Amino acid sequence: MQAAMDEHDDHDPTTPVEGGQKGVSAADFNDEPAIGTAPGECGGGGRGGGGGDSMRGSIAERRAVKCGFRAEKISPVGSPVVVVVEEEEECPAAFVMIPPGMSPTALLDSPIFLPNSQLSPTTGSFSLPHISHEHSIASTLNPVNEDRGENAGSVFRLKPHEVLDSLPDFSSLENKVSSPCNLAQRPDVDYQALFTVDLPLDFEFSAEFSEENTAKNCAVDSVNDVKVSNILIVNDNCGNMQMRCCSDRDGDKSSSLVLKEPAHGEGSRTHNLFEGDLKETNPPLGMVRTSEDGYNWRKYGQKQVKGSEYPRSYYKCTNPNCQVKKVVERSYDGQITEIIYKGVHSHPKPQPTRRPLAGSALPFDEVLEKSEGGGLVWRKIEDTLKDIKLGCEWRTDCLERTSSASGVTELSEPLSPPTQGKSSVGAFESSETPELSSTLATSHDENDDGVTQRSMSLGEEAYDEESQSKRRKTESSILESNLASRADREPPGKHNHEVPASRNNNHVNLSSGSTAANAQLPFALSRNTHIPKPETQIQDVAPRFGRKQPESHNEYLLRPSFLGSFSNEMKFASPSLYLMKFPPLQNPYASFGVTPRTGSIDTILPDFPMSLPWSLPTSTNISLAGFDYNTNDGKPIGPVQSFLSGQQLKENNMRFLRPKLEQKDDNLHDACLPTVDHANASSSSSSSLYHQVMGNFPS
DNA sequence: AGCCTTTGACCAGCG
DNA sequence: TCGCTGGTCAAAGGC
Ligand SMILES: [Zn+2]
């Protein structure tokens, strides 16, 4: 046992070392292990037993996935996206293809996992009032659930034929995504069907997504029902990164989310998401070093698992009250090939600002950029955002980001719904309530390095404070200097805002009585879970994020940003399991490349959390992948709905083309965008928007 | 001093 | 019952 393990300890080229990264290994999946350090993975040995059951199952699934399980195809960048739905008895899972530009972390935080109140707890489908589609995937999925009844959890059975020929639109994805999450919550859910959707979104996120967030989202309900859930991020051999949310069908009540990334993918190497994190050296441009998922992890073991190609590292959340664990499998070159999250954090993320120290966890959201001199430079997103403000265009190729005109949304202050005046990067806020601010705060945090602190809500700040106080001390000086510029920043200090809704959402358990704080719920709500206030549509879709409805089931909303971020493919399989693949070659970290479609502003929403540019200049149309926003009123236009609602989708025939390729011009999007079969008017409107949005993708 | 990684050994499920 | 296996423990050491 051990023998195997050791082989690779030092394998990591990039590895900095280990030891202790003092503090913090905030590992997100990227940096999982100590960031930057691709910690060796060889360790432990062991015998087995133990807790591995859930893990095993997931692994098996992963294996299946890696091996090509499913016909899903990994389309090379630029290749048409294909949605494949397959039924898998053994491995109920949802697969999400992660676009090359998206980092796992981002992915996790991505909207996809937003709790969607819309989702029907019982069915796992979106329940947008007006939207219903005969062919909707949701419909397809629903039957199963219905059969089982609420408790039954939803089982999604997608028939291949249903999906294969038709490419799902975002709404489909949404459904899929959400559904899975919902299902995950339910212990008794039997996820048998697996369906996959490939999204061709072209822009990439530079923002950080936290795995936890994703997990959180998924786990929203799970808190109530699920004891354990897992998130798996896996790299398949095909060069794609996959993320899965898994729940144990057995009643284990566990769910997991898995992200896989191709370790070997040719492209993966150069553009590997993780690589950047793992390797401080030479990460791809545009790559975000979201080293953190926002949580601190301690590695407690490493082992070469028989079925795994690479050694697995076992991490525990450092929070004493938190039992979340994650298993990271890394290739020898330091690429993360697979990540499994188990459980849900019962606490807020440690304050982000605290991990900027070099060598240790990467500060959040740093982006690799070319320096003027041509060299690569890690730059904080915050800075990046500034650039964005100036009007930057992030190229999907991740290799370059050019500044272009426009003004734009200030991420730092940004995108807030008109009413709020604040914008959240990437976060949607459903209501004006404090949550919104929270959300915003969260967003900021990520982007700003804690300008607004990611809220630690529900008195859990204390935890962070204490636990990290030390760290802060050491880092404080650094941070301060960095933060000094920000007016709103306060010393290690009081939050000037209410508890972020996101937190609340993230940790449903905290707010909701039903939840057990300690319960290991697999998915946590993402901090970005908030839907921008804006409105009606959105509210309709996801009105109740935040504490207001903590009890809400695990509802996942696909975040537009998230969706949009997928350049390549997304796959969603069974409810419980999400598998995301990151296509190789594109820089995962690449920021979103949102290009203005009409010459109007258009913002670039670099960061994942970015979210919707609610605060964009008036009259501007922002187009994110899959989203169209009318800045005038700050309301998202159709696409959002379609996205959010998911119900709209149902379209059997959806075809996604990769935005990059497609979005040459406005007209293009039609061709490229998924073809939606508009069964009903409601859906059609959405889709139209969708198309518009899609059209906006930068080519 | 504290936190983390490393890593051999151990635990416990499973066939 | 044995062996395999995966997960975990915990001492040692690094930063
Ligand atoms: Zn935790």
Automatic annotation (TrEMBL):
Residues 429-442 have a biased composition (Low complexity). Residues 286-350 form the WRKY domain. Residues 1-57, 261-290, 403-513 are annotated as: Disordered. Residues 1-13, 261-280, 486-500 have a biased composition (Basic and acidic residues). Residues 41-54 have a biased composition (Gly residues). InterPro entries: WRKY_dom, WRKY_dom_sf, WRKY_plant. Gene3D superfamilies: WRKY domain. Keywords: DNA-binding, Nucleus, Transcription, Transcription regulation. Residues 502-513 have a biased composition (Polar residues). The keyword Signal does not apply. The keyword Transcription applies. Its main location: nucleus. It comes from the Eukaryota. SUPFAM superfamilies: WRKY DNA-binding domain. It is found in: Nucleus. This is WRKY domain-containing protein. It comes from Xanthoceras sorbifolium. The lineage of its organism: Eukaryota, Viridiplantae, Streptophyta, Embryophyta, Tracheophyta.
